[in-house]
Amino acid sequence: GDVYDEKDVTSDVYQDWANLYQTNESGDFELDYSNISEDLALGAFISSSEKEKILKENPNAKVIVKKGNLVVSFPLNMLPIDQDFALNILKDSKDYANSLSPVYDFIIVKDDNTFVKEFKDHPVQLKFIIDPSKVTNWDDVKVKYIDDKGVMQDEVIKIISINKTTGEVVAEVTHFSKYGVFQIASSTNTGSTDNDTSNTGYTDKGSSNNGTSNTGSTNGTASGSTSTSQTSTTTNTNSGSTNSVSTAGNTLPDTATNSFDLLALGLLLISLGGIVLFVRRKNSLKVN
């Protein structure tokens, strides 16, 4: 049920001082803020006075926070026993290309003003509820991580489940930052998770990234396997401008067609007295 103690609402922030003293049918602690405006930042201050006792009774107890079309679920044992903490959820005001949900910033602050950022041993589940009618290809639905500069990262976020009827997308994360749901088409030839790639110095005006160009070769995976490439492209439509951010990527393994073309080019250059050096590198997986 609802677990409220004391509330304070301003024009921008909804603050709630909550105690963990009621559980739902599953034995978890549920804080329901579904009725507050999605645009309000949420600050849920949670007392840990009963935490030690709770964990002795149920070591797997979770805290579930509902806000608008978002549900955050995290294990209680990922937090310190001797400190209260606050979960802050802020909606990013920026517009992101290909987004299916708002982008949210997640922050956990302890009493000593330090942050809980990494929790590899205690993954947190994020459930986004999107509008199914906006999805044209469910295979392209991804949860993406946005860094502090507003740049979409290539980190592969594990998706637990997708409900195409209700629009529920459940993902698992091991660190807090900004996250949102996007529809990003994978490369037809490689199955890459990038939205689009282009050759060095070439701007593709017809690409879905509004003409972004990357420094470095195109990237992806062989045999259609899913992998994260090292070329990152994001479009920021804030203030009417389009910005591109790119990092150096690795070359793809040559397909049979590319090998034939390169061989023909090599024979031509040899006939002209030139020398062609082929350098081949494998894709690497970048995990942030």
UniProtKB/TrEMBL annotation:
Domain of life from the UniProt record: Bacteria
Residue span of region Disordered: 190-250
Membrane-spanning intervals of the chain: 262-279
Domain annotation Gram-positive cocci surface proteins LPxTG: ranges: 252-288
Statement: the UniProt record of this protein carries the keyword Membrane: yes
Keyword set, alphabetical order: Cell wall, Membrane, Peptidoglycan-anchor, Secreted, Signal, Transmembrane, Transmembrane helix
Topology versus the membrane: Peptidoglycan-anchor
Any one Pfam family match given in the protein's UniProt record, by short name: Gram_pos_anchor
Location(s) in or outside the cell: Secreted, Cell wall
InterPro entries membership: LPXTG_anchor
PROSITE patterns linked to this entry: GRAM_POS_ANCHORING
Protein name: Gram-positive cocci surface proteins LPxTG domain-containing protein
Species per Swiss-Prot/TrEMBL record: Neobacillus bataviensis LMG 21833
